[in-house]
Specification:
The protein is an alpha/beta fold and 348 residues long. Helix content is 53%, strand content 12%. Strand 1, helix 1 and strand 2 form a beta-alpha-beta unit. Helix 9 runs antiparallel to helix 10, helix 10 crosses helix 11 and helix 11 runs antiparallel to helix 12. It binds guanosine-5'-diphosphate-alpha-D-mannose and manganese (II) ion.
Length: 348
């Protein structure tokens, strides 16, 4: 018997059919190994009888929170974590995919030296029930690979996770979008020692999955936000360079129909809007008008420098094959760095 206080957090949306067997499984864990276990269900107004079921069961260690005007898995999980009073918290799915029997080992890991734990399909002893279509499998693989810059955890997509409440309270700038709250917590709580406990992931028996295309789109946005959070300079410059390349395309197209000066102006304006939105995403400190003029000024200086560097190559570097091209390319690289540095320093 362990004396630790543990709250299980169960986000639910239309899971009334799955809840009884999960509550039974948790009761078993409570009886066998964790007497101080309690359950918080965070339901998003399912309207499927969840409230009646919990009221009827009337179990003292089970609490239901119904959110009437908010939706979403990640925010539901955070709400549960905020409401918990125990030393340890475990988050899991309600549909039976996550075995309650793994909870004692997860708590064990946290009691020792883990600062985060996940029930994992991808460590020795872990598995996924057959019947995952190729698409779902591929989806999960790609998502896991995209999480690589943030964590080496093998099953970083797992929604079966645990941490001390204290660790949760250290979370900075939580920005929950979409499904992958585990990844968000590992990054924002700066968890170093993540212990993966092997689980057998069962296919949901009842009800329907909520994993839709929208969820995948949100995941992509989530990864970009996390990258901005962990590698802001890299993402900012990389985006700026990408916008620069797109601007070059716009410039070439515009040249076909307008005079040179107009084409330059169109390309600059194009770059300005995308850079302001994506490369310098959190700098809204100056007015857009002054930013625009600053941007045009810096880029014009860059364009002039570009012109002189290219001409210098063409005139002086006869020994280099394709001097014009080499000159144009190196001038562009210098130009992008120049434009970036000055825009970052003075404009945005
Ligand atoms: N409160 C609330 N609000 N709960 C939600 C919502 C919501 O908007 N959307 C889903 N849930 C609950 C479900 O009721 C279930 O208990 C749990 O979140 C997971 O939802 P599923 O629809 O069963 O997700 P899944 O099976 O596609 O995804 C599972 O696998 C992923 C890894 O492949 C979950 O374990 C994910 O957490 C996990 O990341
Ligand atoms: Mn599921």
């Amino acid at each position: 018997m362990q004396q630790e206080t543990v709250t299980i957090i169960l986000p639910t949306y239309e899971e009334v059919d799955s809840l009884p067997s999960l509550i039974d499984a948790l009761a078993e864990v409570k009886k066998e190994s964790l007497p101080n276990l309690s359950l918080i269900i965070v339901d998003d107004n399912s309207d499927d009888g969840t409230e009646a079921l919990i009221a009827e069961k009337n179990i003292p260690w089970v609490r239901l929170i119904v959110r009437r005007d908010e939706k979403g898995l990640s925010t539901a999980v955070i709400r549960g974590l905020e409401e918990a009073q125990s030393e340890f918290c475990i988050v899991m799915d309600a549909d039976g995919s996550h075995p309650a029997s793994a909870i004692p080992s997860m708590i064990e890991a946290l009691v020792h030296d883990a600062d985060f734990t996940v029930g994992s399909r991808y460590v020795p002893g872990g598995s996924t029930e057959d019947g995952w279509g190729v698409l779902r499998w591929l989806n999960s693989k790609i998502a896991t690979i995209m999480a690589r810059p943030f964590t080496t955890v093998k099953d970083s997509m797992s929604g079966f996770l645990g941490m001390r409440r204290e660790t949760f309270l250290t979370a900075k700038d939580l920005d929950p979008v979409g499904y992958k709250i585990g990844l968000e917590l590992i990054v924002k709580c700066r968890c170093k020692n993540v212990v993966e406990v092997p689980i057998h992931f069962r296919t949901r028996q009842l009800g329907e999955s909520k994993l839709t295309l929208k969820v995948q789109w949100e995941y992509l946005q989530h990864v970009i936000r996390l990258l901005r959070y962990t590698h802001p300079k890299f993402v900012s410059f990389f985006t700026f360079a990408a916008v620069g390349v797109s601007g070059l395309g716009v410039y070439i197209l515009a040249l076909m129909v307008t005079p040179l000066v107009i084409a330059i102006w169109i390309a600059m304006t194009w770059n300005f809007f995308w850079d302001r939105k994506y490369a310098f995403w959190d700098s809204r400190k100056n007015s857009i008008v002054s930013q625009y003029f600053g941007f045009v000024l810096v880029c014009s200086a860059g364009a002039v420098a570009n012109y002189f560097i290219t001409s210098w190559f063409v005139e002086n570097a006869h020994s280099i094959p394709l001097a014009g091209l080499v000159g144009g390319l190196s001038a562009s690289v210098i130009g992008i760095v120049f434009n970036y540095v000055f825009n970052k320093a003075f404009v945005f």
